[in-house]
Specification:
The complex is a heterodimer of chains A (244) and B (347).
Chain A lengths: L3 E6 L3 H11 L5 E7 L2 H11 L3 E5 L7 H7 L5 E6 L3 H10 L3 E3 L4 H12 L22 E6 L2 E6 L5 E5 L2 E5 L6 E2 L3 H4 L8 E3 L4 E4 L3 E6 L5 E5 L4 E3 L2 H12 L1
Parallel strand pairs in A: 1-2, 1-3, 3-4, 4-5
Antiparallel strand pairs in A: 6-7, 8-9, 8-12, 9-10, 11-12, 13-14, 14-15
Chain B lengths: L1 H26 L3 H27 L7 H30 L5 H56 L2 H17 L1 H21 L5 E2 H19 L3 E7 L7 E2 L3 H12 L8 E10 L2 E9 L7 H18 L4 E8 L2 E8 L15
Parallel strand pairs in B: 2-4
Antiparallel strand pairs in B: 1-3, 4-5, 5-7, 6-7
Helix pairs in contact in B: 1-2, 2-3, 3-4, 4-9, 5-6, 5-7, 6-7, 7-8, 8-9
Classes of the chains: A alpha/beta (244), B alpha+beta (347).
Chain lengths: 244, 347
Amino acid sequence: MSRLRALIVDDERLARKELRRLLQQHPEIEIAGEAATARDARKMMLDLEPDVLFLDIQMPGESGFDLLTSLDSVPLIVFTTAYDEYALHAFEVSALDYLLKPIEPGRLARAVERLLSTPPPTRPTPPISNPRQLTENHRVFVAEGERCWLVRLGEIQLFESAGNSTRVYFANEKPLIARTLVDLVPRLDERVFFQANRHQIINVKAIRSIQVWFGGRLLARLESGHEVTLSRRRSREFRERMTV
Amino acid sequence: MRPYWICQVTGWSLMGVVTAAIPTLYGGLRWTVVGRAVVGAVLGIVLTDQFRRHILKRGWLRLSPAQLVPRIVVASLAIAFAMMLGVLPFLLLIIPRDRTGPLAAIFAGHVAVILGWSVIYLAVHYLRGLRGAETDRWRLEVAMRDTELRALRAQLNPHFLFNSLNSLRGLVTEDSTRAQNAVTGLAALLRFALLSSRARTITLDRELEATRHYLELESLRLESRLRYHIDVEPQTLGHLVPPMLVQTLVENAIKHGIARLADGGTVRIEARKRAHDLHIRVTNTGSLGSLGESGGIGLANSLERLRLIFGDQAQLTLAASGLDEVSCDVVVPTPSAPAVPDGTAQP
């Protein structure tokens, strides 16, 4: 069984210590490090590349949510909180895993079990030519209103430009993420995500049918039901790619 | 004002019937008698209604009895005189000669009736005012209980409670003696919170004791990030304050100030006596901008409680007191009732 490398993020030393002690019962989890602030956590994540974060919500400066929103991709997450009505509500409506402090060993055991049985290969490997590239197995944290999601990029059918943000469509949801489409393009795996026009990026694996439109332009129908018209130039490139 | 008009019309109609009935018993039904009764009743309604408007407009209801009585008497004389003038043609016909005596008696009767009207009108107002005052007192009590409940809920702030328990769990293996002390401190604080929710005021001394327990528990969690000083003049210790007042201020200072700073900061509690007032100041590192909504509610609640107990002289202000410092200043006057010994509830 492969061990999961964990990073504990909590502003309270005793809380970190207690979680570390509790995790000693679970040799499948290897504690790679501890961070007291979101800023430290962000730095440590670059070096340690943890598989899982045990993440406190209320921290000085940036909250746990702020940390996740700022990350391009997120590992597995187990939220920890003492009592934060807002966060608890968010976890409930978003079906996210969380632990209440003081942590019950039984609850922790179940959370660890769930971590170990999480299906996708936990560490997506981007191509060596572009190490910052996100694969379809990378996950992003998306928050909107009181809800939040940890979405695998492969589940996203369509990215649509909305001013300085981008709307992402997946499983009947369409929240906004705080990045422009232009920022996203170089980060996404071009084998999976294809820029259809200036405003939209589609998931090639989610295309149900392609239709030829006026002037040789293509119309892609997605599994979600969205119809996306490819620009003339992009239609030509798409055909070239398909014939290769 | 419907009851007023019902009374007005019924009262004056009855008065008209009586003034018509008495002469009719003696001399039979005459149009002059009926006319005088009808005109008298109508004038009664109109003139007393004008009188009522005058009373309300001039604010006579707020006058002291010594100011009110002569005014009412003069007004009653004037109104009675006006009524006399109105019914005079009928009276002249009803009383053929030797009129002076009967007319004087009738005038006296009119004056009595108007005075009677005034007494009834003022009595109704007075009684209604009494009932209003009672309702006010009742409402105040409800508000009080409500703030007590909210204060209690704020005291047992679940975030603080569960975080403390979590720190304690971690501390048990690290420093069991300190963990034992912390459990005792937490118990003392919880007991204080539960008991004090029933007391209106307690001494500053007891309040500070609870605040110290609270600070020690928060230190457990925040460790070196929380530094605190308590600087209190000995003569302030007996002054009465609402329970959990200082604790709430300190909790705000930590929640919105210290806990938001990665490097932490300092909380300073000061108490001074100026004239008869107690001045409390809680200062913390931080900036006003970081004050969340709940902090506003917590402080608003504290001020509400202060005002309910000590009146409008009680003050609570929150302001930036330096570049990187926020102060909450509270003025607690000496309650007008004599001070009650340690911690007992005041009626």
